[in-house]
Specification:
Blueprint lengths: L5 E3 L6 E3 L32 H7 L7 E5 L5 E5 L3 E5 L9 E3 L13 E7 L4 E5 L6 E3 L2 E2 L6 E3 L3 E5 L2 E7 L4
Parallel strand pairs: 5-6
Antiparallel strand pairs: 1-2, 3-4, 3-13, 5-7, 7-8, 8-11, 9-10, 9-12, 12-13
């Protein structure tokens, strides 16, 4: 059996030379991960009405609230400068908002899925090379790259949908 002359990027799905370590199209790492701890999930999820979630939310002035778009439940209110959305991991120093109680494993959320950090103007997120990927308002994120988010942004981690709200409740 011969080795392929090209490989496909796991993020943008475009061809690269087999010797490439980084995608020439989107700069995502092309290194194969040997062990994954999150199951890949196919399919579609039913979502709660976004306008209703935003209308009823208690938005903190100095923090961020994360709401489940599947159930409408408040997942967490956080006031820290930096935290991770995922599942509990032993030995990790950063704050992890554990999404396990919301079916995270079954929805394909990695243990260290998304890093969220406060900026001077709001917040930004980065996919932490998760198994099932992260989308911001229907745009797939390149792993390990930061993206600014606005209050009301939709984030999909695998098949789990959340809405983030921050700033003054108007």
């Amino acid at each position: 059996m011969s080795t392929p002359a090209e490989i496909f990027c796991p993020v943008c799905k475009l061809k690269n030379e087999v010797s490439a370590k980084v995608c020439v199209h989107c700069q995502s790492p092309l290194v194969e991960v040997e062990h994954r701890t999150t199951k890949r999930m196919p399919g579609v999820t039913q979502l709660f009405d976004t306008d209703e979630l935003v209308k009823n939310a208690q938005i903190p002035e100095d923090g961020i609230v994360i709401l489940s778009q599947e159930s409408g439940q408040e997942i967490a209110v956080n006031h820290e400068e930096k935290f991770i959305l995922g599942r509990t991991v032993e030995g990790v120093e950063e704050t992890i908002i554990d999404l396990s109680a919301f079916g995270a494993y079954g929805l394909g959320v990695s243990r260290l899925h998304v890093l969220v950090q406060k900026t001077a103007t709001g917040y930004e997120i980065s996919d932490m090379d998760s198994t099932n990927g992260t989308w911001l308002n229907d745009e797939e994120l390149v792993p390990n790259k930061f993206y600014s988010i606005a209050s009301g942004s939709h984030i999909r981690m695998g098949k789990m949908y959340v809405i983030v709200l921050f700033g003054k409740n108007k």
